[in-house]
Write a structure and sequence with these properties.
By secondary structure, the protein is an all-alpha fold. The chain contains seven helices and no strands. Helix 2 crosses helix 4, helix 2 packs across helix 5 and helix 6 runs antiparallel to helix 7.
Length: about 190
């Protein structure tokens, strides 16, 4: 039964995830939460691991969630589930896209899809921020809180330094990940 649940959940994620890995995060989170496969903290850790490892974030996440829920076979089923819709859709779309890429209806559809991708990515950022920047058990589920005592100041420091390094100094993301890992070791 767990294998069927993994397959169906990750088929849905693979089928309805437009905009890449970050846009998939709310869908992955909802499925994981509804089945109780991982805690919010474990989910954020998976996102971090999936981002640091080679490969698409959805495939890496599916593999890890499947493994955590049902072992090696679970990881294979979840990975298959998330990958198959993309494979089938890209084969179908590639056949027709070049022929109709400049069609007004096609442009209107993409015009409508682009803003929701931004919304999905923003929703993912809020979820990860809640889990990473607010102390465990201190939040009532709201990112916006009245007390500074619930904020994880060490995590916020790493976040701010990383953001400055990425945006202001254009430091390569791999270097930022390594430095952040070292800071995490030193500050905890």
């Amino acid at each position: 039964m767990i294998y069927l649940q993994l397959l169906i959940s990750f088929l849905k994620i693979g089928l309805f995830s437009f905009g890449g890995g970050y846009a998939m995060i709310p869908l992955i989170q909802r499925e994981i939460q509804s089945h109780g496969w991982l805690s919010p903290s474990e989910f954020v850790d998976i996102i971090a691991i999936a981002e640091m490892t080679p490969g698409p974030i959805a495939v890496n996440s599916a593999t890890f969630v499947g493994y955590k829920a049902a072992g090696i076979l679970g990881s294979l089923v979840a990975t298959f589930g998330v990958a198959i819709p993309s494979l089938v859709l890209i084969m179908i779309v590639s056949k027709f896209f070049l022929k109709f890429q400049n069609h007004p209806a096609n442009k209107m559809v993409f015009y409508g899809i682009r803003p929701i991708i931004v919304g999905l990515i923003f929703a993912s950022a809020i979820f990860v921020a809640q889990t990473a920047l607010i102390k465990q058990g201190a939040s009532n589920g709201s990112l916006f809180t009245n007390s500074l005592s619930v904020l994880d100041l060490k995590s916020i420091l790493i976040f701010v330094l990383s953001l400055i390094g990425l945006v202001r100094f254009k430091i390569h993301p791999i270097v930022i990940i390594l430095i952040s890992s070292i800071l995490g070791l030193l500050l905890t």
